[in-house]
Amino acid sequence: MADLDDLLNELTAELDDDPDPRSPVRPLPSNIPSRFAPKEQIPVSALQKKCSPVFLSGSMTAVGLGSHSSPRSCDKLICLACDCRVVSFDNYQWTDDVDYLFLRNNYPDYSRLQCHLRPRRGSRAYACQCQHQSAIETRKVGVNLVSSGLKWTCTSHPIV
Ligand SMILES: [Zn+2]
Ligand SMILES: [Zn+2]
User: Fold this and answer.
1) Centre of ligand 2 from the C-alpha of residue 46, in Å
2) Cα 142 from Cα 146, distance rounded (Å)
3) Is the pTM of this model over 0.85?
4) Residue 142, Cβ neighbours under 10 Å: how many?
5) How many Å lie between the centroid of ligand 2 and the Cα of residue 27?
6) 3-state secondary structure at position 2
7) How far is the CA of 80 from the centre of ligand 1 (A)?
8) Of 16, 72, 97, 119, which is most buried by a Cβ count within 10 Å?
9) What is the per-residue pLDDT across 81-97, written as a single tens digit (0 to 9) for each?
10) Full strand arrangement of the beta sheet holding 117-127
């Protein structure tokens, strides 16, 4: 408990030093915990950022953190409806007869999903356990795709 004692001593010393003649306002007790906050901050290397907006793109577009100036295809999507990570398959598109039960029974195993995946150059096929989408051009999730009702959102990307 040496660290805690040090902190308490330091805290007491600080309070004893007060008031500082240059600052007539005494610090309130509620300000004290904030003095220790920097020690609990997340290291810079662990910072995460979410796509804004979230893009789905064809296989020719790079994956990663997307923004208006850099519309990359998000590869950290999660479905808010089924709580599953969204998987994607480059150069494939879904056949028209994919349904909820098929995804539920076969997600996320490619060898089981491939019977409804058709090779298509430049396309990227996305799926969670309840929804699917094929993309060739870059589109925003929840903006251009509102009518499709996609419940996919970015979970955030580590900032290098
Ligand atoms: Zn993202
Ligand atoms: Zn889902």
Assistant:
1) 27
2) 5
3) no
4) 14
5) 50
6) helix
7) 14
8) 72
9) 999 999 999 999 999 99
10) 87-94, 117-127, 132-135
